[in-house]
Amino acid sequence: MNVRRLIPAAALAGAVVLGSTALTGCSAGSAAGGGKDGRIAVTASFYPLQFLAEQIGRDHVSVSSLTKPGTEPHDLEITPRQTGRLGQSDVIVYLKGLQPAVDEAVAQAGVKNVVDAAALTELEAHGPSGHGHAPEGADGHAEDHAGGHDHDHGGEGGKDPHVWLDPVKYAEIAKGVGAALEKADPGHAADYRKNTDDLTGRLAALDAEFKAGLANSASKTFITTHAAFGYLAERYGLDQEGISGVDPESEPSPARMKELQELARKENVSTVFFETLASDKTAKALAGDTGLKTDVLDPLEGITDTSQGADYFEVMRSNLKNLQKALGSK
Predict the structure, then answer these.
(1) Which member of 19, 270, 277, 316 has the greatest number of CB atoms within 10 A?
(2) 329: number of Cβ within 10 Å
(3) Are 184 and 60 spatial neighbours (Cβ–Cβ below 8 Å)?
(4) Eight-state DSSP code of residue 252
C-alpha cells in the first residue's frame, strides 16, 4: 500500500499564491459590481468548485456553473455564447484538464481573475486497479483494462482529476479559492477568510468521520464502474477496483470483467458500485455474473434529484455509509 506524501505547509502556501497570482492585475473597484446586486460574479466549471465558491463567498458572490445539473462534466461542450458570457465573469474557478472544452473557453474568455484548482493541490496518477498508479504489464506499460479506451480521460498529463473526493485535498483547494476571492474583493477579505476557516474545519471533521468509519472494515476492496475514487481510497487505506478507468463511459474488456469476477471471490467483495450520471449497465452485468449486490457511490460531479443528498457533505456521508455497509465496517 502506498503511503500518501503530504504537502508541506510552505508548498501549500506557494500553491495558493500560484492560484491567486492572476488576480493581481484587477483592482477591487474593477472586480466588484460584475455580479447581481453588486456582488462578485464567479463562474465555476462544475459542481465541486461551485460549492466552494458559494460556501466561501456567501452573500458577497453570485455563482454560476458551466455544467448544469444532470450533465456528465467530462463530456461538456460549450457554445460560443457561453464563452462570451464567461468573459463577463469577475472570477473563474476551474480544474484544468478535467474538461477540455472548459480549458479552451477559459483561454478565450480573457478574464484576468482565473483560479486553476489543479494548481492548489498535488494531482496523482490512479489507474482502474488499486489506489495508486495503474498496474503495469510485462512490457512496463500500464495495462489496458477497457479494450483500448483511454483511462487518463479528464486528467492533465495522465493525472486523476477527482481530488474533491478526498476531504483533505478539497480543503487545500478551498484555501486557494478563499485567497482568490480575498484578492478580487479585499473589502470583504475578513468574511472570506472566516468562511474559508469554517469550511476547512467542516472538511477536517468529515475526514475524521471517514477515518473512524472505515478503520475496522472486514474488506478493503471495493468495485466501482467509474474509477473516480483513487484519492479517497488512498486516503483511507482502501483498494479501488474500477470496471472502467477514469472515463465513466469507457467499456471494459471481457478480460477485465473476468479478472473482476475472480477478484470479487478472492477479496470477499459484496457490492458493485455505480453512479448517478453514468450507465449502470456494466455494474449490473458484473453483479449478476457474480451474485453481488449493487449500490451507489457518487463521484459528486454534479448534484441532481437522484443524488444521495442536497450538498457535498450530505452526499459524502451517504458514500461513507454505503462503503461501510459494503466493506463490513464495525
Answers:
(1) 19
(2) 17
(3) no
(4) P
| Residue 303 identity (one-letter amino acid) | I
- Residue type, position 304, single letter: T
Q: Which residue has the cell 462534466?
A: 73
Q: What is the pTM of this model?
A: 0.80
C-alpha–C-alpha distance, residues 258 and 264, integer Å: 10
pLDDT tens-digit profile, the chain (330 residues): 433 333 333 333 443 333 433 333 333 333 344 555 889 999 999 999 999 999 999 999 999 999 988 788 888 899 888 888 899 999 999 999 999 999 999 999 989 899 999 999 999 988 666 544 333 333 333 333 333 333 344 456 689 999 999 999 999 999 999 999 999 999 999 999 999 999 999 999 999 999 999 999 999 999 988 789 999 999 999 999 988 755 555 667 778 888 888 888 888 898 989 887 666 777 788 887 788 888 999 999 988 776 777 899 999 999 999 999 999 987
Q: Any bridge partners for residue 54, and if so which?
A: none
Between CA 285 and CA 272 the distance in angstroms is 10
Torsion of CA 271, 243, 1, 123, to 10 degrees: -120
The Cα angle at residue 235 between residues 98 and 255, in degrees rounded to 5:
65
